Amino acid sequence: MKRVFGAKKDKEPPPSIQDASDRINKRGDNVDDKLKKLDAELSRYKEQIKKTRPGPAQEAIKARAMRILKQKRMYEGQRDMLYNQTFNLDQVSFAAEGLKDAQQTVSALKSANKELKGMMKTVKIQDIDNLQDEMMDLMDVSNEIQETLGRSYNVPDDIDEEELMGELDALEADMGSEADGIPSYLQPDKEEPDFDTELNLPAAPTGHTTAAQQGEDELGLPTVPRASLRS
Fold it and tell me: What is the predicted pLDDT for the residue at 106?
């Protein structure tokens, strides 16, 4: 069958934007090289025109220079066209890359959304509320257990509160009687005692008397009469 109808040739994949851009840039490089050669020839013809006298020889050089100049303008037009094509390809490539980034972003969001939905199915608000209620009940039971364990075994349960109040009143009365027996210098509310009155000391003299009038010398000793000194 292949010999009769021939085998179907595989189609080559279409060129990518990058391939087309590389091809155009290569053509642009070739045009730039040709322009450099034409510029070199024009410079040589300019020097010859300056050195040649006006006449047929100079006119021939000018004609060749005009031909080179026309070629240069043609190649410059081609180079500008290639630059425009390259610019358009760059814009298309930028847009294509932006679309690829958008596709990846949308795909990532879809995957994250699917994962979140799967996680939400395993976590329910009602289950969380029930868990919180169970934790509160457990805490209450724990507090009751602690209170039960903290009871004193020596305190009887059948104590009469009225008897306890009577004992408390009696205890306060005993404390009051002990306060009456506290010495006066230890009681904070009473005034300080007058030590002069308690010791019955004589009052200090109010007049200004000399030591001689009191029968004492300057050192406070009793004076001896002069008659006794003569004898």
Answer: 93
Query: What phi and psi, each to the nearest 5 degrees, are found at residue 216?
Result: -130, 150
Those residues whose C-beta lies under 8 Å from the C-beta of residue 64, and which sit 6 or more positions away, are 45
Residue 176: pLDDT band (50, 70, 90) is low
Q: Which of 185, 205, 186 has its CA nearest to residue 194?
A: 185
- Which residues lie below 8 Å from residue 217, measured CB to CB, with a gap of 6+? 211, 223
Residue 231: pLDDT band (50, 70, 90) is very low
DSSP string, 121-190: HH--HHHHHHHHHHHHHHHHHHHHHHHHHT--SSS-S---HHHHHHHHHHHHHHHHHHHHTS-GGG-SSS
Residue type present at position 173: A
The pTM of this model reads 0.41
Asked whether the beta carbons of 230 and 224 are under 8 A apart, the reply is no
Q: How would residue 1 be classed by pLDDT, with cut points 50, 70 and 90?
A: very low
For the chain, the domains span 16-111
The Cα–Cα gap between 150 and 57 comes to 129
Query: Residue range 17-40: average pLDDT?
Result: 87
Correct CATH for 16-111 of 1.10.287, 1.20.120, 3.30.450, 1.20.81: 1.10.287
Mean pLDDT score, 43-47:
86
Note whether 28 and 83 are within 8 A (CB): yes
Closest CA to 23 of 85, 93, 92: 85
- What gap in Å lies between CA 34 and CA 215, rounded to an integer? 151
pLDDT, mean of residues 138-164: 77
